[in-house]
Amino acid sequence: MYHTVFSPMLPIKSFYLYLTLTLLTLFTIMTDTITYPGFLKKHVLLDTNILFILFLVTSVYIFFLPGKIDFSTLQPIKKLNSFILLPVIAVFTFIFTFADFFLYPNFTFSTFHIHYSQFLYLLLISTGLALVTIDRQLLKRRKHALIFSGAFFLLFIGICIWLWPNGAFFELSKEDRLFENLQFLFFSLSTILAALITKHFFNKDLKHIAILFFFITMFLFFVSGEEIAWGQRIFHIESPAIMKENNTQHELTLHNLKAINQYQYLLYMLLGAYGAFSWIISSFFPYKKIRDFLHNISIPWFAAPYFLPIFLFYLYVNFIGGKRWEWQEFSELLLALGITIFLLVTYIAYKPTKLKLLTG
């Protein structure tokens, strides 16, 4: 019988396989960093992107496995990564990215002969390994702080990509690219979570709350469908003439209709403001009954940073006159992730007879 790291799910032998995958991914990225992106794929058919995605999926799976963790035999690896590699990689990611932007393009490569954009992948790998090896008791005590700081970590990554040359950030923001696909993923997951919460309240005969979450479910389902134009581009469906004429993107979506599109920013601003500030209102409202009700429908403080960027973005471009439209999709991505976090915490936290939205 194996000594287990994740008892009883993950034998130590399996965890060493995960470490092997991590080291292999690090090796391929480091090789691409000092040669050029795609070097190993071209010469030995070792695709860095596939390994990186496999690492991320495996890390998420291991992170959510139940059970206690015993890293007594892995403390050197854990400490080396968490206290040396992670902060060092983060610092160099920051330095190289900003040096290329503020000094001159290609400064890092011409000076050090490395492709600094690969450091972002190294940062994500080191972060993933740190989360997988984190002490579960510490995670339990600091989970809210971890979620809260995660928003700023993602914003840091977003800023780094935005500073990359050749419009990389803009390319990722286009239709059916990374940011929009992740939005669809998070909105779809949120729809499932909201439906499960709705079912719970209907089963408990708490129909007034169930109806509220039913409408949330329907709204999220609608948003998910709109994100991918209801599968129009996937199934190559031709838009009818009326949609081509009245839709800003000539597709089968309602939110891009000319009559609606010019006002949708108000909905995003309201969602952003609600998510960012509702926890403050629910904490200080003078009447206890209303305060308790607001407490049960407000976004928890640790999820608030995911909602604030979309509010600030539309405030900036619509009322201050800013022109940074490339941040629209990334801000909406953070919003989608914030909604998912809120509903996931909600789903996990409710008890057999009632739902407690805030867990502390």
Could you explain how this protein is built, in words?
The chain is mostly helical and 360 residues long. The chain folds into two domains: 4-134, no CATH class; 178-349, no CATH class. Helix content is 72%, strand content 1%. The protein is built from 17 helices and two strands. It has helices at 12-34, 39-44, 48-63, 75-102, 107-112, 118-132, 136-163, 168-172, 178-203, 207-227, 232-235, 241-246, 258-261, 264-284, 288-297, 304-320, 328-349; strands at residues 4-6, 10-11. A two-stranded antiparallel sheet has the order 1-2. Helix 1 (12-34) packs antiparallel against helix 6 (118-132), helix 4 packs antiparallel against helix 6 and helix 9 (178-203) packs parallel to helix 17 (328-349).
SSE layout and pairing:
Layout: E1 4-6, E2 10-11, H1 12-34, H2 39-44, H3 48-63, H4 75-102, H5 107-112, H6 118-132, H7 136-163, H8 168-172, H9 178-203, H10 207-227, H11 232-235, H12 241-246, H13 258-261, H14 264-284, H15 288-297, H16 304-320, H17 328-349
Antiparallel strand pairs: 1-2
Helix pairs in contact: 1-3, 1-6, 3-6, 4-6, 9-10, 9-17, 14-15, 14-16, 16-17
Characteristic key phrases:
360 residues, mainly alpha, 2 domains, 2 strands, 72% helix, disordered N terminus, disordered C terminus
What's the gist of this structure?
The protein is 72% helix and 1% strand.
Instruction: Write down the secondary-structure element order.
Output: EEHHHHHHHHHHHHHHHHH
> Uncertain segments of ≥5 residues (pLDDT<50)?
1-9, 352-360
- The radius of gyration over CA amounts to 23 Å
- Biggest sheet, in brief? 2 strands, antiparallel
Strand order of the largest sheet: 1-2
Number of strands: 2
Mean pLDDT: 84
The proportion of residues forming helix, as a percent range, comes to over 70%
Could you give the distance between the termini? 39 Å
Shape: globular
